[in-house]
Amino acid sequence: MPRPSKYVFRSDLGWPACRATYANPRSGLVIHYDSVDQGLAGKDHSACLTYWRNTRAFHMGPSRGWTCIGYSFMSCAHGYVLEGRGLYKTQAAQPGGNTTHYSVTLATGPTDPITPEQIDAVRELRRWLTEPGISASGTVLGHRDFVPTSCPGDRAYALVRNGTFERPPGETTEVHDMLGLRIGSRGEAVKLLQLRIGRAGFGDALGGTGADSVYGPATAEGVRLCREYVGSRALAGYGDEMTAHAVDQVEAAVTKRALERTEISGAVLDGDHAPPEG
Question: Which of 136, 163, 164, 204 lies in disulfide reach of 129, CB 3.0 to 4.6 Å?
Fold first, then answer.
């Protein structure tokens, strides 16, 4: 029954056995995140170990007073799975699912990247949990599927919804910065989307504020126009969230517009150099 290939035990961190009550979560795996950006993808793996230790100290400290770190596991940006409460323990991660579902936090914030290595670590963890002897379901959910919360963030939740975490380990995954953005999102990924809308020829839809890094109704309309431009029905609401289809169609709109501009430019050049008639 192979554990994930890069697995860090509690004992490796110098932690004693978890004293949380017994549970046998068999309904699946729940994805979490941190509400604050951590920047761990750009740091050495030792920073992930420090983050995990600090998280445990916070959970067991006066602010929470829990018997142990709240999560079952963590998946870090470098592809490691770090043990938290581990197997067969009640968690403090998702009210309504603490005895029925295992939990894994990605240790990312709202604008932190989710790396392919991190995704593959979750896939390896999921595969391990579904094998005989543990026999958990392969279902992957987000924290917000249990209670109203921003967790696990729009980007991670989009990967939950499109089945990315349920694919076999080792499958190549490209994580798109714009995937999962929606009305209310903010940051550099939103600005990237707005710049793409401009390149697709629909910058006027953004109004006077232009690429302001805020996903509001104007950005949603720009997305909808991009999708309509490449043949989508683009009904009302089609710009409210960057699903996989929306990302693909916005990128297709940028490519289509660039090709059209190239063709127009080529036609002008051909006209400038055409031989005189007669």
Answer: 136
Burial (CB < 10 A; 0-12, 13-18, 19+), residue 259, is exposed
CA dihedral defined by 76, 80, 85, 87, rounded to 10 degrees?
Answer: 130
pTM (whole model) above 0.85: no
Those residues with Cβ within 8 angstroms of residue 195's Cβ, 6 or more apart along the chain or in another chain: 211
| Closest C-alpha to 202, from 212, 210, 190 | 210
DSSP SS3 for 78: coil
Instruction: State pLDDT tens for residues 119-163.
Output: 999 999 999 999 999 999 999 999 999 999 999 998 899 889 888
Euclidean distance between the first and the last CA atom of the chain, given in angstroms as a whole number? 83
Q: Does 248 or 6 have the greater pLDDT score?
A: 6
Look at residue 271 and tell me whether its pLDDT is greater than 70: no
What are the φ and ψ backbone dihedral angles of 119, each rounded to 5 degrees?
-65, -45
Nearest 5 degrees, angle CA 189-CA 203-CA 231?
Answer: 90
CA–CA distance, 140 with 122 (Å, rounded to integer) = 10
Number of Cβ within 10 Å of residue 212's Cβ equals 16
Residue pointed to by tokens 């992930």: 48
Tell how far CA 95 is from the center of its chain. 22
